[in-house]
Amino acid sequence: MSLFYIPATARFRADSLAALRQLNTYIASQSLTAVLASTTYTSCWDTLDSSHFQALEAIANRAAPPSGGPDAPVNISYLSARIRALLPTETIYATEAATNHVRMTEQLQPSLPGTWFTKGAGGLGWGCGAALGIKLAADSSPP
Q1: 2: pLDDT strictly greater than 70
Q2: N or C: which end of the chain has fewer CB within 10 A?
């Protein structure tokens, strides 16, 4: 979501290395380590892991081939899953999907940085120009 229209009352600059060092020092402290190892937190992570696994199963189930033979209509989940299976992992996607955005994203599951470009909000019409710019930028960037 764009926030350019909200006037800034102050600007801050942080040293990310110093911030990460401080966070790592705090996390490594005895008190926090004990809390993170408690059954409360481990059970929470187990629940999240199980929930994530169930969500991935549901996504895979939605990608089942449509019943009704070769003349059956194809749904977006099946189509997107087939695209993912046929294209290399490093494929760069420039998507302009509106209604089918969630189902398409679930199936394509892009995971590499710089391989997923999509509109920010009602951006219908930006896809062709964006795809051209992304292609030109990808061709000129080092491997």
Answers
A1: no
A2: C
Q: Return the amino acid letter for 119.
A: K
Burial of residue 1 (CB within 10 Å: 0-12, 13-18, 19+) is: exposed
User: What tokens does 24 get?
Assistant: 């790592």
| Residue of 56, 110, 51 lying closest to 80 (CA atoms) | 110
Predicted TM-score (pTM) of this structure = 0.67
Give the pair of three-digit tokens for residue 75.
Answer: 């749904």
The DSSP code for 100 is T
The pLDDT tens digits for 120-138 are 766 678 888 889 999 999 8
Q: Across the chain, what does the average pLDDT equal?
A: 87
Q: Among 111, 86, 87, 83, which residue's Cα sits nearest to residue 97?
A: 83
Within the chain, how many helices (H) and strands (E) appear?
A: 6, 2
Is residue 1's pLDDT more than 60? no
